[in-house]
Amino acid sequence: MLYWEDLEVGTDTLFGHYDVTREEVLEFARKYDPQPFHLSDEAAARTHFGRVAASGWHTGAMSMRVIVDALTKVPQAGLGSPGIDDLRWLKPVYPGDRLAVRGEIIEKTPSRSKPELGTIRTKTIVTNQDGVDVMRYTSIVLMQRRPDGA
After folding, report:
1. What are the backbone dihedrals phi and psi of residue 78, each rounded to the nearest 5 degrees, phi first?
2. CB 133 within 8 A of CB 90
3. What is d(CA 40, CA 52) in angstroms, rounded to the nearest whole number?
């Protein structure tokens, strides 16, 4: 089990990759973000996207899937997140793109009110197959601290 104490500032992790499919882009858009440029090549051609592009929220969901898949391979004492900061969608994500999700631990802070907890801040960057940054954000993660005597 990895606890807060086991993590080091500066650690940079490639969590993995995600292949974006047209079917998934359309399905997500129909259900959660039904804007024309997420649903139709014709409508998207009249915008700066040029063709159907994934919703930014879908890009976030795909990156979360990659992170969770990677983190479940090694048990961790993560307790969720109170939120993210500085979310930016930098470039469109298109069907056929292959996303890479990378995170760097930039800060660790022990909880002042709950000694059994700490937080880490991670700068997450999502790039496409050409190495172009398409999304970035800073996540705050609650972590359990190592139990006494463990």
Report:
1. -75, 145
2. yes
3. 6
pLDDT in tens, 28-73: 999 999 999 999 999 999 999 999 999 999 999 999 999 999 999 9
At 143 the three-state DSSP class reads strand
| Planar angle of CA 113, 118, 119, nearest 5 degrees | 115
Token pair belonging to 73? 């391979």
Q: CATH code at 37?
A: 3.10.129.10
Of 101, 135, 103, the C-alpha closest to 120 is: 103
Question: How many domains does the chain contain in total?
Answer: 1
Find tokens 């880490």 and name the residue. Answer: 120
